[in-house]
Amino acid sequence: MDIGSISLSKNDVVRKCIGILGIRGSGKSNTAKILIEELVKERVPVTVIDPDGEYIDEISNFNGIVVNDFSKDPISLAIEHHKKMSTVDIDMSEWTEESFKFLAKYLEALWEISRFVGVDRTIVVEEAHEFIPQGKVTELSDAIVRIALRGRKRGLGLVIVSQRSAKVNKDALSESEIYFLHKVVHPADLKVYKEILPMKPKEVEEIVPKLKTGEALFYYNGEVKQIKIRKFEIPILTSLKQFETVQI
Ligand SMILES: Nc1ncnc2c1ncn2[C@@H]1O[C@H](COP(=O)(O)OP(=O)(O)OP(=O)(O)O)[C@@H](O)[C@H]1O
Ligand SMILES: [Mg+2]
Predict the structure, then answer these.
(1) Which one of 27, 75, 150, 160 has the fewest CB atoms closer than 10 angstroms to its CB?
(2) Would you tell me which CATH number, out of the four given (1.10.150.170, 3.40.50.300, 3.40.50.850, 3.40.50.360), belongs to the domain 10-247?
(3) What is the residue extent of each domain of the chain?
(4) Using a 6 Å cutoff on CB, does residue 25 contact ligand 1?
């Protein structure tokens, strides 16, 4: 899997909990899109919990399904999607109570069906502090935290994306075996990074606030590397650009 200045194998990523943290505009969603693209290439279906509808174009481009009609039966949909190995965008941008209830039931059904259907799936939770806040339990947060804690055996991985690392459920976040730590500056966020990284606190303070957009400290297997993630481009745009180059 081509992430940018590093490559990963499918097995590095599936069935894992992955944390992508950083301030606004530091490149978190771009990093998540690169992971999704590489997983889809490896035929691993992905479910994105998408609070801003920011992944709809990408998921549609990967022949995925966009779910935005929350009057449908979440249980039969989840079973159908998982059996067919569909990649799915759950468009939560309307932020209704109905959509939150739907999502909780959908993820509970996915959890149940994953016992019987032996395929891997990675669930990406954008703005994770909204869905799995620290110190607050809901039906939905329960469903997501369960996947973080016990998903591996059922083939389920979780990607936690957040700009408010201190406000994300710690039980879930601390399950992460891989971290992409983009720029943060606030002492509360730097503290979270210092707890995660096997580095001297002073070093964290010196390096992390200077990271540029798309750069991150990548932490995996006890090793920290400063990396640059490649910029995500929707494949059709990429081919159009190649076409333009040929024309010139
Ligand atoms: N690796 C990268 N290389 C080049 N440009 C990038 C990279 N990562 C992100 N960008 C650009 O920087 C901008 C912000 O990126 P992105 O939306 O991923 O940030 P974010 O951390 O998710 O921000 P937010 O907290 O607002 O959601 C975008 O225009 C994106 O295209
Ligand atoms: Mg984002």
Answers:
(1) 150
(2) 3.40.50.300
(3) 10-247
(4) yes
- Give me the phi and psi of 224, to 5 degrees please: -115, 130
Residue 241 CB–ligand 1 contact under 6 Å:
no
pLDDT tens-digit series, residues 54-66: 999 999 999 999 9
CB 100 within 8 A of CB 131: no
User: Nearest C-alpha to atom 7 of ligand 1 is from which residue?
Assistant: 214
The DSSP 8-state label assigned to residue 167 in this structure reads: G
- Residue corresponding to tokens 């067919």: 84
Report whether pLDDT(238) > 80: no
Question: Could you tell me if 78 and 106 are in contact, meaning their C-beta atoms sit under 8 angstroms apart?
Answer: yes
Going by C-beta distance under 8 Å and a sequence separation of 6 or more, which residues neighbour residue 50? 56, 59, 89, 90, 91, 92, 93, 126
Tens digit of each residue's pLDDT (9 = 90 or more) over 185-221: 999 999 999 999 999 999 999 999 999 999 999 999 9
According to DSSP, residue 163 is labeled S
The pLDDT tens digits of the residues spanning 141-154 come to 999 999 999 999 99
Find out whether 126 and 49 touch, Cβ atoms under 8 Å.
Answer: yes
Overall average pLDDT of the 96-117 stretch: 97
Is this model's pTM higher than 0.90 or not? yes
Q: Which of 30, 34, 227 to mutate to test the pocket of ligand 1 (most atoms within 8 A of CB)?
A: 30
Residue 15, φ and ψ in degrees, nearest 5: 60, 20
